[in-house]
Inverse folding.
């Protein structure tokens, strides 16, 4: 059984990058008939906010990304305490006493010598007496996880292929602050074990975290921590997607703040966002596919490329129009102007880039409309149109056929003055569909007014 998770930190609103990660994890779970967990990573009590948690839920709901379970890190502190104790007993956690400034100085010195800024494990080399002295002085300690330099780190990444890391090239990660609070690294691994997560799919900014977490997973397994029926007994499969960049190819600030509110305001349908983000950065064609099941069925990590995925807002607009043209009346009825029925929706839908524009086009049906000034010749033609108009099943087809015969006009000369008289516009929805909606009485009135 596949279990995936989306693990946002509620320190802000979701942006396109997060939405993409959520969507892909959702698709992976739905494709395999598995579970999709929403995990709120709220160990940072200062920056986490409840209104962001609500907004994350609301955004996922608007996007139609339903989750099967919700978990919160702040409710699982006892599990992190247990994992910490197990790792400590196994000799994989050690206290450190350096201040932030000291660490920064060490970092600068290393960089100045052209060396990678890897933590030097000075705290590990303290003697028992030195450690006791620090404690006696009341120097606060934070805690690091001891990486095993002898253990090779490798995994077969679902997108990036075989990955290899040398643990000696990584810093032992700080997993707990001096005030007892948790950093991201260990709780996430504990959760993935406890929640039986089988696939971890996230952005490539997490690749080196994965290297570290693989050792945390392994150490937790070795310490017998993965108990319980639902716990994952083996490492999850990892996959890291290339990051999303703006059209210019750069990591853009704009993308970092572009979220559901902005999309909603611009009249972008969730299905357009889904259709774009489902396939962006893959070798599959990006098309206005409104059928989610089809998107889920075609989702395949093997189609993902290593190059950054370019998010282009023009693509989104194009897809939105394509999606709007397919939406059934039932799906949009509540957002349409009063009185607009299914026939009205079908007539007007092909002209819309956004559903919000329906009201402007519907105005052509309900009136009032503003007609242009017609030439004397066109006035005569429109008088003739009023005389020959017979209301039946397809009044437009019938009218244009008899008018063509009677006047010899064709093409633009035939259709344009009629469209202008009946709608006030040079272009617009199909007149065959529109005229029945305008109705006989109103149509006669408009032709009469145009000819006057
Ligand atoms: N809270 C982390 C983030 O938002 C989760 C990363 C992960 O998927 O493990 O980056």
């Amino acid at each position: 059984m596949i279990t995936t998770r989306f693990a946002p930190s509620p320190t802000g609103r979701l942006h396109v990058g997060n939405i993409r990660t959520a969507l892909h994890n959702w698709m992976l779970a739905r494709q395999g008939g598995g579970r999709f967990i929403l995990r709120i990573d709220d160990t940072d009590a200062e920056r986490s906010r409840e209104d962001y948690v609500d907004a994350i839920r609301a955004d996922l709901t608007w996007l139609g990304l339903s989750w099967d379970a919700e978990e919160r890190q702040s409710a699982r502190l006892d599990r992190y305490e247990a994992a910490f104790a197990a790792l400590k007993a196994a000799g994989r956690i050690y206290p450190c006493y350096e201040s932030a400034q000291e660490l920064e100085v060490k970092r600068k010195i290393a960089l100045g010598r052209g060396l990678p800024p890897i933590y030097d494990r000075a705290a590990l080399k303290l003697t028992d007496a030195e450690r006791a002295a620090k404690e006696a002085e009341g120097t606060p300690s934070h805690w690091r996880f001891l990486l095993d330099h002898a253990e090779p780190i490798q995994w077969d990444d679902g997108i990036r292929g075989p990955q290899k890391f040398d643990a000696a090239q990584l810093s032992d990660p700080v997993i707990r602050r001096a005030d007892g609070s948790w950093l991201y690294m260990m709780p996430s691994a504990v959760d993935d074990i406890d929640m039986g997560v089988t696939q971890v799919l996230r952005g490539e900014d997490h690749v080196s975290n994965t290297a570290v977490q693989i050792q945390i997973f392994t150490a937790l397994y070795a310490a017998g921590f993965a108990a319980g029926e639902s716990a994952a007994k083996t490492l999850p499969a990892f996959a890291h997607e290339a990051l999303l960049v703006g059209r210019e190819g750069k990591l853009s600030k704009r993308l970092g703040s572009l979220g559901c509110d902005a999309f909603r305001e611009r009249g972008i349908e969730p299905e357009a966002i889904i259709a774009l983000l489902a396939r962006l950065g893959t070798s599959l064609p990006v098309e206005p596919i409104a059928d989610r099941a089809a998107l889920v069925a075609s989702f395949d990590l093997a189609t993902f490329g290593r190059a950054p995925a370019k998010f282009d807002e023009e693509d989104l607009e194009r897809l939105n129009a394509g999606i709007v043209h397919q939406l059934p009346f039932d799906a949009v009825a509540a957002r349409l102007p009063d009185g607009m029925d299914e026939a009205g929706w079908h007539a007007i839908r092909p002209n819309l880039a956004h559903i919000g524009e329906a009201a402007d086009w519907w105005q052509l049906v309900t009136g009032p409309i503003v007609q242009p000034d017609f030439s004397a010749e066109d006035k005569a033609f429109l008088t003739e149109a009023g005389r020959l108009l017979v209301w039946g099943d397809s009044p437009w087809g019938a009218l244009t056929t008899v008018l063509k015969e009677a006047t010899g006009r064709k093409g633009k000369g035939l259709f344009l003055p009629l469209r202008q008289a009946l709608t006030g516009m040079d272009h617009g929805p199909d007149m065959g569909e529109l005229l029945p909606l305008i109705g006989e009485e109103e149509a006669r009135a408009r032709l009469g007014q145009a000819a006057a």
About this structure: The pocket of glutamic acid is lined by residues 7-9, 41, 184, 188, 202, 206 (CB under 6 Å). The chain has a mean pLDDT of 96. The chain is about 45% helix and 10% strand.
